[in-house]
Write a structure and sequence with these properties.
Number of domains: 2
Helix content: 40-55%
Distance between the termini: 41 Å
Strand content: 5-15%
Radius of gyration: 20 Å
Bound molecules: flavin mononucleotide
CATH topology of the largest domain: TIM Barrel
CATH class of the largest domain: Alpha Beta
Length: 326
């Protein structure tokens, strides 16, 4: 079990924000496969603070997907607090603050991961957001901007400050900002955080691809929760594997081609109802590599599906290429 403020989750894992992926369709599938909590991709606070923008579907949760969190990015405490209020009002159950994003355009504006160099500003943002909403407020951060003493000092200052504020949860991506999404994840430092601040709820993020990774973070490093990200792109079965780890410690068998086909077609169906048809096909390409993971003719199938341009053609190709061969 995992408790985040008033919210109780049956299992200690969740799907962390994935910009450009974790829309309603991906989140619904995650839930269906046993993931107890999902997050929408990061939203710019300046946009989410605007009532008109909040009317757009991408900025609202579906009625049938609670609990679901929204994440905001920004550097102005007042704007971040306004955005949080708006998102809580449209129905998001948790507000997460992004101090982790490594995108150059974000760093240039001193937002996301760049703010880790300014612990006081982060804490100012956190306090204003927390005071503006009644739902849990969680925080996503990395282990520093760079592998430098100053970055390490700032990181520990922040952790201590969040401990003093009794933050609902910290999700820590075990890489520095300059590493972006590659290089080793430092899980040792995540374990040290939990050891030093045992009362804080700490979730670990970085390279979660199997239930062994979950066991490493929870059992070995003593963390409270695990944040699933890239491992679940085109692979909602990862959530079923992690859930089974808690239920029975027995990994479920890999999905058959037919099962993959059904899920892909349903996922694509949801994508088609969210986006115009030309965009839907292009958008869905991002999930194909994941879905083809277990296909015996993986490379050939990926190349074929990537070339498809029309929704109906994509449905037909999936239907043929993923038919179980008896
Ligand atoms: C395409 C992509 C989009 C991401 N979008 C977000 C985001 O919106 N907010 C966020 O906090 N992290 C975001 N992340 C970071 C992930 O949530 C996660 O912390 C990171 O990928 C490490 O986990 P993994 O190695 O298991 O993927 C993103 C990562 C990727 C690859």
């Amino acid at each position: 079990m995992l408790r985040l403020g008033e919210i109780e989750l049956e299992y200690p894992f969740f799907q962390t924000p994935l910009s450009g992926y974790s829309d309603y369709a991906m989140r619904k599938l995650a839930k269906e496969f046993g993931c107890p909590l999902t997050f929408a991709g990061v939203m710019l606070a300046k946009s989410a603070a605007n009532e008109k923008v909040l009317k757009k579907n991408a900025f609202r949760p579906g009625d049938d997907e609670h609990p679901v969190g929204a994440q905001i990015l920004g550097d102005e405490p007042v704007v971040m607090a306004e955005a949080a209020k708006g998102l809580a009002n449209v129905g998001f159950d948790i507000i997460d603050l992004n101090f982790a994003c490594p995108a150059p355009k974000v760093l240039r504006r001193k937002r996301g991961g760049a703010l880790l160099d300014e612990p006081q500003r982060i804490m100012e943002i956190y306090r204003q957001v927390r005071d503006a909403v009644s739902c849990p407020v969680t925080v996503k951060l990395r282990i520093g901007v760079k592998n430098l003493e100053k970055s390490k000092d700032d990181f520990w200052k922040l952790i201590e400050a969040f401990n003093n504020e009794q933050v609902d949860m910290l999700t820590i991506h075990g890489r520095t900002v300059d590493k972006k999404f590659s290089g080793d994840v430092d899980r040792e430092i995540l374990g040290q955080v939990k050891k030093q601040f045992p009362n804080m709820v700490i979730a670990g993020s970085g390279d979660i691809y199997s239930s062994e990774d979950v066991a490493d973070l929870l059992k070995d490093k003593g963390l409270d929760a695990v944040a699933v990200a890239r491992g679940a792109i085109g692979n909602p079965w990862l959530f079923a594997e992690i859930k089974a780890y808690f239920d029975s410690n027995q990994a479920p068998s890999k999905p058959s081609l037919n099962e993959v086909k059904d899920v892909m077609l349903r996922h694509f169906g949801m994508v088609c109802s969210l986006y115009p048809s030309v965009k839907a096909v292009r958008y869905f390409r991002k999930f194909l590599t994941g879905y083809c993971k277990y296909h015996p003719e993986r490379k050939k199938v990926i190349v074929t599906l990537m070339a498809v341009k029309k929704p109906q053609q994509l449905r037909e190709s999936i239907d043929i290429l993923f038919a179980d061969k008896i």
